[in-house]
């Protein structure tokens, strides 16, 4: 950073961001706050000088707010306070995700504003009832990352748009070394040329698209024209990057810890459980292999009750065995 853009007095402020995830009608949803230009600016006026944010119509944001050391006993209590105020929701399970402090996260930093360092959190909830706050809404997380949902096969946007655009980006590299590097990273992240797809590399895929100027948040231009982003819905600031981090973390974690049950009702069928895991991972699972895995790990127990399913046979209801948290460590739902 040069002297002309150094924040006044080297000031750093701390923000708190929440990725709140729920399963609604077998779809992974994230709670977002819809802002106008005025409300988004007002939300940040305590963090930086009140200056308009150049976001056009991209005002879907994660719940966020500043950390007040004199008001908030801990970072987590500050986060819970902001979430309740902005969404009218209490959050249960919460874990710290990552600390985001890259230069230029808030565009007003270039005008001498403070460096904004945000602590991101992942929260899993079951309460998805209506909120009294009109601009807090549940959105399908694949609305922001349509290339991540493989439940119906390879996403069409990959073959028709993203892969051709990335191949063009590779070809247009300034030299052979850069071309090789771009190709290798694209193979790893997007499964190019028969490389296996890794469902956990959500952040890496988004960051590659960002680097290639293929998403709106990049705020770059191609041929002098602003990018038209049809590759998922953009978000304010770097909130789509924070969301990508959370999705990748959750996809990885369900393979070795039973966090998926934080999203399940008290009782459920094994098919309902499988549908939730598939929704989170974005891929289909083999029914019998999944059920053998659940049985082998002793994650659930039958309630003795039967649920009538329309158009199918009655199904047994199960519940999560919380005792297993004390019994073993490797308790995820990775398919062997």
Automatic annotation (TrEMBL):
<feature type="domain" description="NrtR DNA-binding winged helix">
    <location>
        <begin position="260"/>
        <end position="320"/>
    </location>
</feature>
<dbReference type="Pfam" id="PF21906">
    <property type="entry name" value="WHD_NrtR"/>
</dbReference>
<dbReference type="InterPro" id="IPR036390">
    <property type="entry name" value="WH_DNA-bd_sf"/>
</dbReference>
<dbReference type="InterPro" id="IPR015797">
    <property type="entry name" value="NUDIX_hydrolase-like_dom_sf"/>
</dbReference>
<dbReference type="InterPro" id="IPR054105">
    <property type="entry name" value="WHD_NrtR"/>
</dbReference>
<protein>
    <submittedName>
        <fullName>Membrane protein</fullName>
    </submittedName>
</protein>
<dbReference type="InterPro" id="IPR036388">
    <property type="entry name" value="WH-like_DNA-bd_sf"/>
</dbReference>
<dbReference type="InterPro" id="IPR011213">
    <property type="entry name" value="NMN_biosyn"/>
</dbReference>
């Amino acid at each position: 950073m040069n002297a002309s853009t150094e924040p006044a007095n080297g000031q750093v402020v701390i923000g708190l961001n929440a990725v709140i995830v729920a399963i609604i009608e077998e779809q992974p949803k994230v709670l977002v706050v819809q802002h106008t230009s005025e409300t988004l600016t007002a939300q940040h006026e305590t963090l930086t000088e009140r200056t308009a944010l150049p976001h056009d119509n991209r005002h879907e944001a994660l719940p966020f707010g500043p950390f007040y050391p004199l008001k908030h006993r801990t970072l987590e209590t500050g986060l819970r306070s902001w979430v309740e105020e902005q969404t009218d929701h209490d959050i249960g399970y919460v874990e710290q995700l990552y600390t985001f402090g890259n230069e230029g996260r808030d565009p007003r930093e270039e005008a001498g504003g403070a460096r904004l360092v945000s602590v991101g959190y992942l929260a899993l909830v079951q309460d998805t009832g209506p909120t009294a706050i009109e601009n807090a809404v549940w959105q399908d997380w694949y609305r922001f990352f349509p290339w991540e949902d493989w439940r119906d096969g390879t996403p069409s946007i990959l073959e028709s748009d993203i892969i051709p655009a990335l191949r063009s980006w590779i070809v247009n590299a300034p030299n052979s070394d850069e071309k090789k590097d771009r190709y290798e990273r694209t193979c790893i992240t997007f499964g190019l040329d028969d490389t296996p797809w890794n469902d956990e590399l959500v952040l890496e895929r988004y960051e590659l698209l960002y680097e290639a100027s293929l998403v709106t948040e990049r705020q770059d231009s191609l041929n002098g024209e602003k990018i038209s982003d049809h590759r998922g819905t953009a978000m304010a600031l770097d909130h789509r990057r924070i969301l990508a981090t959370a999705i990748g973390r959750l996809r990885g974690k369900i393979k070795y810890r039973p966090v998926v049950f934080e999203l399940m009702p008290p009782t459920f069928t094994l098919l309902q459980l499988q549908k939730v895991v598939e929704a989170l991972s974005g891929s289909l699972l083999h029914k019998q292999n999944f059920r053998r895995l659940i049985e082998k790990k002793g994650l659930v127990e039958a309630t003795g009750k039967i649920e009538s399913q329309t158009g199918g046979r009655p199904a047994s209801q199960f519940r999560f065995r919380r005792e297993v948290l004390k019994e073993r460590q490797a308790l995820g739902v990775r398919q062997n």
